[in-house]
Write a structure and sequence with these properties.
This protein has seven helices and eight strands; from the N terminus they run αααααββββββαββα. The protein is an alpha+beta fold. It has three domains: 91 residues, no CATH class; 58 residues, SH3 type barrels (Roll); 98 residues, Alpha-Beta Plaits. The strands form two sheets. The protein has a five-stranded antiparallel β-sheet. Strand 7 and strand 8 form a beta hairpin. Helix 2 runs antiparallel to helix 3 and helix 6 packs antiparallel against helix 7. It is elongated and about 110 Å long.
């Protein structure tokens, strides 16, 4: 022990680093122990998740102040050393620093939260976790049609919150506008067709309309935006082949695919019940003239 003490006295910088690392280990172990205790004692998953993230942030803060206070005054030219160290870290760990800054930005500004559906850097999905470096998402789309999970879990650097737009499907206003076109054959009873589409849309979408109307009032009060129509609307366009009905409506962002299926299915049943008064159109081709083909037979001996 005496030889170890003498060696540490002869090497004060090494002793300082070893002592510092010892304190870091104590802090990290204490925080991990606290996280385990909270994970076992808290039953609510939302509160448990937030407490874990709070302890993680607290750990970074404690380590930062421990480092700053521990070395201040014990190393000569501390200001110069810290300046050079900071410059080197900034250059070599630029992406990591941006990720840490992004996590703080996400946490304090509430850009998005776990459970939100977002699109960032061209990737769309549901946020399932946010840590100090990465945002973890369950991917939607790609080779899968509509808003279905692809099955891939994507980890995206938090630095991307500073590099482009973030589309949030659920924050403040958890509804989106959707639409589809319905081709009606010329000669059909247009008024009957309009009545069918409006009736079906009103019945299926009434719940979404009421909920979205209340939410939209909050959006208007919070942002500089005009009032919007949330009731289903129908627009008619005359094309070369059919009368095109365009139905625009509002729907819960999580139920866009199932709602569109229900609208199509119900409208199709209603059209069939008109017994030919309303007929759905399809692409047609009119042949004006069939060209004459001249052939010549050749006898082979």
């Amino acid at each position: 022990m005496d030889s170890i003490q003498n060696w540490l006295i002869d090497h004060p910088t090494t002793y300082l680093v070893v002592k510092y690392l010892g304190w870091v280990i104590v802090v990290v172990m204490s925080l991990n122990l606290l996280r385990r205790l909270l994970r076992r004692s808290i039953q609510d998953p939302n509160v448990r998740y937030k407490s874990q993230k709070g302890i993680e942030v607290l750990g970074y803060i404690l380590l930062f102040f421990l480092t700053a206070s521990y070395f201040t005054g014990d190393i000569k030219d501390f200001t110069l050393a810290i300046g050079l160290l900071t410059a080197g870290i900034t250059i070599t760990l630029q992406e990591l620093i941006l990720s840490l800054a992004g996590s703080m930005y996400i946490f304090f500004v509430k850009v998005y939260s776990p459970g939100d559906r977002i699109e960032i850097n061209g990737i769309k999905g549901d946020v399932i976790d946010i840590d100090s470096i990465y945002t973890t998402m369950m991917e939607i789309g790609e080779w899968v049609s509509s808003d279905n999970y692809s099955g891939r879990i994507v980890k995206l650097s938090n630095a991307f919150v500073f590099k482009g737009p973030i589309y949030n499907y659920s924050k403040d206003f958890p509804f989106i506008w959707d639409e589809f076109n319905l081709p009606i054959r010329y000669g059909s009873d247009v008024e009957e067709a309009k009545a069918i589409v409006i009736k079906v849309a009103s019945e299926i979408l009434s719940g979404y309309v009421e909920q979205s109307r209340n939410k939209w009032k909050d959006v208007v009060n919070k942002y500089y935006i005009e009032d919007a129509q949330v009731d289903p609307s129908l627009a008619i366009t005359l094309t070369d082949n059919w009368i095109e009905f365009n139905l625009r409506y509002i729907v819960d962002y999580r139920k866009r695919r199932s709602t569109k299926h229900l609208l199509h299915d119900t409208i199709a049943d209603a059209v069939i019940k008109t017994e030919g008064k309303v007929i759905l159109a399809s692409s047609t081709m009119e042949i004006i003239r069939i060209p004459t083909l001249k052939t010549q037979a050749t006898n082979h001996e």
